[in-house]
Design goal:
Blueprint lengths: L2 E5 L3 H4 L3 H10 L5 E5 L6 H10 L5 E3 L8 H10 L5 E3 L8 H10 L5 E3 L8 H10 L5 E3 L8 H10 L5 H8 L1
Parallel strand pairs: 1-2, 2-3, 3-4, 4-5, 5-6
């Protein structure tokens, strides 16, 4: 198994548990792409297990997994250094700590979605601007603590951003 997508995981309704994702991680070390969209009940134990067991993962989409703490994303940053796509949009508990770790360790990133992460500040986006020169897409919509200075740094340092991305960031 190299790709797995689970959409809208609800432990009570679906009977899935973190143990299910942990088992997949342990049995599928060549997993390259994982989508856990709107799996609101997922905890950091699943994400840490995937990060530690599947270091070759390049696409990690965990948007709307609202309970995840920084430790989850920090584990991804530490273990999945060839990551090219990360979507943590609407992961509302994340702070600069985990996004700085991603920026410093995942320098192959081309796509980064951070929309609706209200705790992020210029610190994390400046780290992205300094370390993620291969970015083509960055979404920071509704990250209300960001200033124009960090957006300007991204626009100046990330030369591969698409025109559409540049326009969205310039708004």
């Amino acid at each position: 198994l190299e790709k797995l997508s689970i959409l809208g995981w609800d432990i009570e309704d679906d009977g899935l548990t973190d143990a299910s994702i942990v088992a997949v991680a342990h049995k599928c070390p060549k997993l390259a792409a994982l989508t856990l969209y709107a799996c609101r009940d997922i905890t950091d134990s699943s994400i840490v297990a995937v990060a530690e067991s599947c270091p070759c993962i390049t696409v990690f989409d965990i948007q709307h997994c609202e309970q995840l703490p920084d430790a989850s994303i920090s584990a991804v940053a530490a273990n999945c250094r060839t990551l090219t796509h990360l979507d943590v949009g609407s992961c509302k508990n994340l702070t600069d700590m985990s996004i700085v770790a991603v920026a410093e360790n995942c320098r192959e990133l081309t796509t980064l979605y951070l929309d609706l992460c209200p705790n992020l500040t210029d610190t994390s986006i400046l780290a992205v601007a300094e370390n993620c020169s291969k970015l083509t897409t960055l979404n920071v919509d509704h990250c209300t603590e960001l200033t124009a200075a960090c957006i300007d740094a991204v626009l100046a340092n990330c030369e591969n951003l698409t025109d559409a991305c540049r326009q969205a960031l310039s708004r």
